[in-house]
Structure formats: structure tokens, C-alpha cells
């Protein structure tokens, strides 16, 4: 494996005449939906105490259709190709839909570790140029809704916000079950996910297809919160696909940072030396400051 040095960061096939597929994540989902429309793609039943409320089984066709609806909803918010959205939540069905919808709409998805607190989240949202935040009202014992309210000023409509501390953020939306008393509160509240999706009816399917067709397979689809926050010094600012990989309490061969680890020995073979050499090769952007960061780190993945 090797990394090109021509301004694009991606992995080349290792010989044997195997070329990379020039396709995007959104196009790949469409292809699977055409090839295997009735095969199950998503099975979700994480919380049996909720009964059938979160007992979900989607085929590839259903997954694709829902992702298309969410993509239209994102476009109806006025988000343009290359804009950044963030997800601050645990594993939920909406997470899967946002990931594919962002790919189809050409948006950059910034992942926020669900255990982070107010100051850390504020830093990531600001450094990640996030314009729309999708979050859960509560994660474990942390009131995420209270944090978002403290960071933003309510707008004229549900979900619309402004903030001096987060100048680019203009929309917030709840994921998962909203608080029981949310509907009883007067005045402003975050938008609900189903409201955002319903707003997508203002965007035509043709407009969504045109947006998806404009997305390049060389473009970046997802940024880990760590690299989004460290973009002034990190090569991950360049176009590449990033996937989430936590490396606590070991020196990351990709970015050189140290990470805490609460349980178990630190991993030793997560990244190959070749990746480290490519990252710090002449012409790259090695980190000038190496200090502990209690966040996640990502390694580049091959384009699909």
C-alpha cells in the first residue's frame, strides 16, 4: 500500500492488476439495493426494554430509500456540497441514515465521541466548521440538550440557532426519543429528526440525484472529531475518507498524538509503519505540537 503525493490522499491497489473502484459510498448503497433489494441490510434491536419501538429490520432497498429521504431533508436545510454536519450520539438507526445521506448529499460528517462534555464538544464544533448538529437529548448521565442550549441562542423556528461561540452553527436536531416534557415546553426547541426528514419534500428526487452525481470518489466523506479539531496541523484536512478508530493511551502512528486507555494493553499493530512514514513524508504536514488528547483518532481507509 502507498500514498500518492500529488495532492490527493488515497491508497493505491497493491499490484496484481487490481484497480480501485471509482465509486462513492452513496453509489455503492444504490448498487447494493439494486443487486440485493430484499436482503436485510440493517437489524437493530439494541434496547429490548422498549419493546418493538426500536426493533428495526431494513432491507437494502428500504435502507436506500430512507437514506434518500434524509439526504433530501439535509438539502432542504440549505446545506451545500462540502458543508459540515456533526453527529453527537450513541449507536442509533438515525446514525446509519445520516452517514449514507451525508455521502449522497456531498456533506462532510464530523463524528463527536458521545462521552465528551461541553467544553470538548464546543471545541470540536468550532474547529470542525459544523453548520448542523444532530445529537441525543441525554447520553448516560450527561444532559446534552442543556449543553446545546447553553452554547446557542434560539432562532425564530424550531431547530434554528445562532451562536457567538459557534459562528457557523445554525441548526440543531434531536436524535432518538425526545424528552417526555419537550412538547410541553413553550417557545423554541431543537428540531426533531422526523421533522427534518419531512422538510425534504421541498427538494425533488431529481435534485437529490444531481447532487449525488456531483460527488467525487476522491472527496472526503467523513472526518473524525479528532482530526477535524486538529486540522491546522494535520494532513487529514486533505481529501480522504476517514473512519472511526479509537486508540487510547498509545502513540498514534498516524498523527503522533498520545491517547489514554482505561482498560487493557495498548494496541501495537493498528497502523503499519508505512502509513506513519507516508504521513510524515517530505511535503506532508507533520504535527509540530505533540500533547495528550482524550479524543479518538482515525486512520485512512481505502476508497471503495
Q: Any overview of this molecule?
A:
The protein has 304 residues and is an alpha/beta fold. It has 9 helices and 14 strands. Strand 6 (138-139) and strand 7 (142-143) form a beta hairpin. Helix 1 runs antiparallel to helix 2, helix 1 crosses helix 3 (93-105) and helix 2 (60-76) crosses helix 3. The radius of gyration is 20 Å and the shape is globular. The two termini are 15 Å apart.
Q: What's the order of the H and E elements? A: HEEHEHEHEEEHEEEEHHEHEHE
Instruction: Give the CATH H-level superfamily of the largest domain.
Output: ANL, N-terminal domain
Q: Which segments are poorly predicted (pLDDT under 50) over 5 or more consecutive residues?
A: 225-304
Structural class: alpha/beta
* CATH architecture label name of the largest domain: 3-Layer(aba) Sandwich
What is Rg? 20 Å
- Name the strands of the widest sheet in spatial order: 11-10-5-3-4-12
What is the terminal-to-terminal distance?
15 Å
> Given the structure, what is the number of helices?
9
CATH fold-level topology of the largest domain: Rossmann fold
Tally of structural domains: 2
CATH class label of the largest domain? Alpha Beta
- Binned, the helix content reads 25-40%
What does the overall shape look like?
Answer: globular
Mean pLDDT: 75
Biggest sheet record = 6 strands, parallel
Number of strands: 14
